[in-house]
Write a structure and sequence with these properties.
Strand content: 25-35%
Distance between the termini: 83 Å
Number of helices: 10
Structural class: alpha+beta
Radius of gyration: 28 Å
Strand order of the largest sheet: 1-5-6-7-2-3-4
Length: 416
Amino acid sequence: MGWGVGRVRHVAPRQHGLEKGAGDRLRDIEAVTGARLAHLDVEELLVELLDRVRDVLAADTAVVLLLDEPTGELVATAARGIEEEVYQAARVPVGRGFAGRIAATKQPAAIEDIADADVVNPVLRESGVRSLLGVPLLVEGRLLGVLHVGTVRSRRFDDNDVELLQMVADRVALATLASLSESERNASVVLQRSLLPDALPRIQGLEAAFRYIAGAGGSVGGDWYDLFVLPSGGICASVGDVVGKGLRAAVVMGRIRSALRAHSLAHQGDPRAVLDMVDHQLRHFDPDAMATAIVAVIDPSLDRFHLAIAGHPAPVMAVPGERGRYLDVPVGPPLGVPGTWSRPVTTVDLPPGAAVCFYTDGLIERRGTKLTARLARLCETVTAAAPEQVCTSVMLRMVGFERPTDDIAVLALRRT
């Protein structure tokens, strides 16, 4: 192979097929990535696969390090023969050390003797590992992590070993991505459901109903709705949408919703102050996040409400005997946009029998259809009926029989 002792050499797999023995070993790996592992979570799946990897390559250790994108580090997630690497939550920066350079170059690499090599993880040295072979975990060019195997005796890994381990890694990457996606979705759903209200409060003189549905593809977003009574007797309603999908969006949504509640208590009756404080908090703690939001505070008398909007669609309101109308009120920039902004407050009368429908953009945006046409349809649909009926009519007319591609949250209120 032409490498020096203690030096890392990047190895390009050969283009021809595997010899028969290696092909038999590969089929052994393919068998273990089949349907009978579908019930396993990510960690259990990886451990099972690593046992097979050690067997087919006659290795003493096998480790999967997955990429933690926010920190740019590889995290030991599963290991066999060197389990302490996982127990100690070993981390390797991308670009440093053996696994870090594999991640940075997205190329296989091997070390015949780690004695003089740049290995930043002390667990490897203390475990007695002598030789290493590692390959990147890739799916369509996207780096998921690194798979490496090791032996306690000096070993010269050949091209067949590299080719086999890379093929194994490709299957591990696909299985890991599927399991991670499912795990993230499940976690997102659980988190989202735990953060959204189980039920809306019963408020004398005010009826309320809601709808929430996740978009097609099963990826939960950051839509939310909320309704609560302030110590002053005022009623706060909020609806919003975090930009993005998945667990990260759900986490940010939870933080924003909690912040909205906290600042609503501190700034009762002032939706502009609430949005400004939430915006300041978001930009400080989650500078890469962005969200749209609407906050409405209804007076204790229920005669009117005060409205401030951060980049969100305005509500639709209907009074008895008339069709709904889009409240053409000033809209400030979304939360998380750098700069100093003013989000005006608009006061709107709320006569007896009037209904207000708040919603997220997933309700009105459809590819290939003008937004003005969708808004006109929503205004035709919202009436001064009971909120449950309003929600039912809105979902029937605006969603119909096709699952939307984006999440939808709807909150309907009516003064009785």
